[in-house]
Amino acid sequence: MAERARGEPPKQRTGTRTSRAGSRPILPGVPVPIPIPVPVPVPVPSSLAPQPNARPAPRCRRQWRRWGLPQDGGAQALRRRRRRSGGGRGEAMLRASLRQVSAALKEGQVTPTELCHKCLALIKSTKLLNAYITVAEETALKQAEESEERYRRGQPLGVLDGIPVAVKDNFNTAGIETTCASNMLKGYIPPYNATVVQKLQDQGAVLLGKTNLDEFAMGSGSTDGVFGPVRNPWSYSRQYKEKSAPKSDPEHEEFKWVITGGSSGGSAAAVSSFTCFAALGSDTGGSTRNPAAHCGVVGLKPTYGLISRHGLIPLVNSMDVPGILTRCVDDAAVVLGSLAGHDPKDSTTIQDAFQPFELPNMPDVSKLCIGIPKEYNAPGLSSEILAVWSKAADLFKNAGAKVIEVSLPHTPYSIVCYHVLCTAEVASNMARFDGLEYGHRSDVNESTESMYAATRQEGFNDVVRGRILSGNYFLLKQNYEDYFVKAQKVRRLIANDFVKVFRSGVDILLTPTTLSDAVPYIEFIKEDNRTRSTQDDILTQAANMAGLPAISVPTALSERGLPVGLQFIGRSFQEKQLLTVAKWFEKQVKFPMIQLEEVKGA
Ligand SMILES: NC(=O)C[C@H](N)C(=O)O
């Protein structure tokens, strides 16, 4: 039976409603004006050093050390790492990439059970991060033993055989509690696996547990779940502590830590803190890419329809996709290969079988056209992120790619449009939680109506109830045309913007993922985090409304010593091209991983 690791209860939010920009409240229904981009001179973060000759980075020991990328499938490099780290079996493995650890498992350098024990121990010692809601220790060890048996007997192996993974707690897992971080579903043990969970297990993955999130994935902070907020592992990094952790704030000592972003913050923190090698998130308006950017990991949102949603507890059916969080782009390609393809249980999935692909070792971007959408220089974008973005564009130019400014003119409407469509679908999706079919049922029983009302009052937090209220308002007969139908039309315009740009010859769009680096929790709860969340999604929502694939790649460390990610958006079902460009970029920027010792001290 699954054992739970839970954090403190959510803290009360206080304070006034202001936007991140500090001055510009964003009201539903009011389109956001786009400012003329003003170039601001800012220091270039050192981890994004200019690369005048954009040759692919040499595949040398130094590069491997920084990135942990495999040179020989990874086994040889892992042996070296183990020697350097004093020979601790498993310990050095934790920082390895999924591909490296897979090679090490095949070479017998480590066994699935050793690896599983190491991950479980690290989950315990990093409990403060609150990344996991449920740690499925028994199930994980059983799966690891089964995998070990397959290795021992020389049986056919899956691509993820013996590799510890984690899954966001809004995917159904047979026999393991699935809560959506909500009182409504506490204690719910699904009788079946989501298709993606089943596919992970079919490939031999070891499921360590279920990761924390905002209630029903509504939010961009991972602060709004019933099991408490998730802490960003980078809060404990040397860089952050030296550069910006508030020095004296005894009253709020425990809130120096920064948020992970969300809503898949638990998954991002789990991958970033080395407790698993890959994790599933979900992405409806940016919930995989946003926390990936804040936690310094790769976050892939695939094309809508490429991966089955069956068993993912729905938020916005027309936009939800399972997301993939890994430590490098190559790993994201491996996980994508094991999840993608038609599912008879989800009629929105592609009909064709998906051909898993390997990314080229030396990606070449010199023949590509990279589009820089000017509207993504949105209100509230920090000057530091603007600088990282423009530096990244220079990298592509220096590599011989054509880099042009493009316009996606309807982007400013995406927040409003998303708000109407999201809440309308939320209102309809949440109707099933009525105290009869699933989850919580109130003791109030004077009448059916009072039971319904009390169940939903006790079961949902105010973010969820707020969205249900807005959604029902937009769906009222007298409002439907003015809001829902109009938003559908705007969604089409937003999608058409992308079509036009890609038809004009642009291969990939390059944008920031978030408006700023992660903020301390204490600051986050002082402001109205819903306004902040809404704003934060402006750079990611449009890809969901257009159904396009997008990936956030960790790029630089901010002045405060926190990760900054950039986003690439590709054409529908062109994941191979998208990931190839992302891999090239990843090799150029050499983003530093956090140290295992720093995380352990969390
Ligand atoms: N899962 C998501 O992408 C949700 C999105 N951040 C929202 O609050 O609607």
From TrEMBL:
Compositional bias ranges of the Basic and acidic residues kind: 1-11
The source's domain of life comes to Eukaryota
Which reactions appear under catalytic activity for this entry? Answer: L-glutamyl-tRNA(Gln) + L-glutamine + ATP + H2O = L-glutaminyl-tRNA(Gln) + L-glutamate + ADP + phosphate + H(+)
- Pfam families of this UniProt entry? Amidase
Tell me the SUPFAM superfamilies matching this sequence.
Amidase signature (AS) enzymes
User: Which residues does the entry assign to the active site, renumbered to this chain?
Assistant: K168, S263, S287
Please state where this protein is localized: Mitochondrion
Q: Which GO terms describe its molecular function?
A: ATP binding; glutaminyl-tRNA synthase (glutamine-hydrolyzing) activity
Q: State the residue spans of region: Disordered.
A: 1-32, 65-91
Annotated GO biological processes are:
glutaminyl-tRNAGln biosynthesis via transamidation; mitochondrial translation
List the EC numbers from the record. 6.3.5.7
Which keywords label this protein?
ATP-binding, Ligase, Mitochondrion, Nucleotide-binding, Protein biosynthesis
The record places domain Amidase at 119-579
User: Where is this chain compositionally biased, Low complexity type?
Assistant: 13-27
Q: Does the keyword Ligase apply?
A: yes
Q: Which InterPro entries match?
A: Amidase (IPR000120), Amidase_dom (IPR023631), AS_sf (IPR036928), GatA (IPR004412)
Q: What does this protein do?
A: Allows the formation of correctly charged Gln-tRNA(Gln) through the transamidation of misacylated Glu-tRNA(Gln) in the mitochondria. The reaction takes place in the presence of glutamine and ATP through an activated gamma-phospho-Glu-tRNA(Gln).
Alphabetical list of HAMAP family matching this protein: GatA
Tell me the subunit arrangement. Subunit of the heterotrimeric GatCAB amidotransferase (AdT) complex, composed of A (QRSL1), B (GATB) and C (GATC) subunits.
Family of the protein in this entry: Belongs to the amidase family. GatA subfamily.
What PANTHER family would the database entry show?
Answer: GLUTAMYL-TRNA(GLN) AMIDOTRANSFERASE SUBUNIT A, MITOCHONDRIAL (PTHR11895:SF7), TRANSAMIDASE (PTHR11895)
The protein in question is named Glutamyl-tRNA(Gln) amidotransferase subunit A, mitochondrial
Per the UniProt record, the source organism is: Anas platyrhynchos platyrhynchos
